[in-house]
Amino acid sequence: MRTSWADSVANAENSAFATGASASTNNAANTNTSAAVVAAAPRPDRAAYVPPHLRNRAPAVVEAPVPSPINGPSAAKLPSGLRAPSGGTRPGGGPVRDMGRPGFGGSRGGGSWGSRSGGWDRREREVNPFTNDEETTDAAFDGQENTGINFDAYEDIPVETSGENVPPPVSTFAEIDLGDAVNENIRRCKYVKPTPVQRHAIPILVAGRDLMACAQTGSGKTAAFCFPIISGIMRGPPSHRQRGSRTVYPSALILSPTRELSIQIHEEARKFSYQAGVRVVVAYGGAPINQQLRELERGVDILVATPGRLVDLLERARVSLQNIRYLALDEADRMLDMGFEPQIRKIVEQMDMPTRGQRQTMLFSATFPREIQRLASDFLFNYIFLAVGRVGSSTDLIVQRVEFVLESDKRSHLMDLLHAQRVNGTSAKQALTLVFVETKKGADSLEHWLCMNGFPATTIHGDRTQQEREQALRSFKSGATPILVATDVAARGLDIPHVAHVVNFDLPNDIDDYVHRIGRTGRAGKSGLATAFFNENNSSLSRSLAELMQEANQEVPQWLSRYAAARSHGGGGGRNRRSGPRFGGRDFRRDSSNRSGAGDYFGGGSGYGGGAYGASPGYGGGAYGNPGLTSAWD
DNA sequence: AAAAAAT
């Protein structure tokens, strides 16, 4: 399967351009259908925000919510295998998500989903998110989203779950009642079949359980947490809002580590919630706050935000978290690393957000180092750990190469690669190439040098204005500047279709960062190429890089193996705690070294009445991974 | 050591 490097480039380019590389990307769906729906809807009187609990009622009638009976939110709607799990008991002993939540389930006159579409709505005011991107053509759209995912590659994907009473996976969206509106949006997105992470995560989340999920970005994890949140809000309790107050009370909070990723999540969430009567608002720094405040004032059910701007909004009392029922951290390991952790802790623990167990918490990332899992467990209640592994499957679609390049040779070497892509490519255009460097200054200077040498490039990093950053991304996506020089701001989560080649001009120091970077190509089942420039300065990465590549059935150069070996039996060498080959993730609760203190790790220990973890049937058997593994992608 | 994230 794997051939020469030149072939790899050519293949990646073919793959990138087969669907029209200059066309924009992320948009989904069927303009005609959506437009027809819009046209058919009645004209609104006003654009005033209508809170979810009022949207499916006649204006004058407001029923008092009826306390829910015994079972979980959607027990009645779920297949028998998916009933609210007994493992979902809280310290107090009551059923998990419905306790103390009047109207959480079943109070809405039988809970028929269709009822939400009636009455006075402002849906026709809702901008159709499926038509947002300019040059949408069928050709450009095909092969986006799930339609392009190579499901064959997923068939044998290893999956590991642990935790109590894990709900079984589904194999179709139809098996779970997400509601008519969401189902319609799934259709508009042309999602035919859930991806592996969706198959497992959606039933877990719909059952109300907390979740820590290791899943490769690009495998549909945004949808995996958005669908349950949206459908949960639609059947949820009233979100009250005080008259005269400018404070808003979102039901769900989705946090991400970069502004661009928040923007992207917002765009996706808007598609998933289109005409569902659920409002999604995004807030991030670097942009004027006033417009964001206006959006918030129009009402918000789901708030997507970066931490700094959210703290600002909280301190201004323009947002309150006291109604949060769903908390999602995307790129959760990044959110909890040294730079971010205090801010996240402040938001989650020191503002007015309901405590764990009172809310549903979901953490997603492609990598999950053990020590970060330990931190994360502070936020989780009796959670399920899910790892969608990748052995010999989807990530094989990324061809990884490492080349030994001295610092002084990097620029000319890059030039050679870029030239080769031009010459070998089927298109006269340059294939989209994402070049990662270490520093912001380095990014600027490399961009300048590339432009001077006839390669149209732009750059994205934290010293640029937000406008410049977003412009750079647009210009790259459109192919206007097919080379993007980036710092790690672009390493995580960004879905940039048609990236044929990721170049690690400067390798990161952490193998997890490498994993995230190369994940910008080979997305959604497409093939991609990743080239790394390695030299003496990167020797600390040699071992984990060699192991990772071996793991992914990549060709490991002998010189790299020698580097790795030299480090492993040097004094005190040993495995880096954070590194090691990653396939599947491993629940840190299963590590014997953690067992003694297990009570610390899942929900404050002794309070809840369930069995101890060690006694849980899922434990101890069937691990497909290496015992030493600490993180995962996919 | 660098990058990101509020003004």
Give structural attributes.
globular, disordered C terminus, eight-stranded mixed β-sheet, alpha/beta, DNA-binding, 634 residues, 2 domains, 30% helix, 20 helices, disordered N terminus, Rossmann fold
What features would you describe in this structure?
The radius of gyration is 24 Å and the shape is globular. Helix 6 packs parallel to helix 7 (221-234) and helix 18 packs across helix 19. The model is unreliable at 1-124, 133-148, 570-583 and 595-634 (pLDDT under 50). It has helices at 5-17, 31-40, 138-141, 151-154, 180-188, 196-206, 221-234, 259-272, 289-297, 307-315, 332-335, 341-349, 370-376, 410-424, 440-452, 466-478, 511-518, 542-551, 558-568, 592-595; strands at 159-162, 211-214, 252-255, 280-283, 302-305, 326-330, 360-365, 384-388, 398-404, 432-436, 457-460, 483-486, 499-504, 528-534. With 634 residues, the protein is of the alpha/beta class. It binds one DNA strand of 7 nucleotides through helix 10.
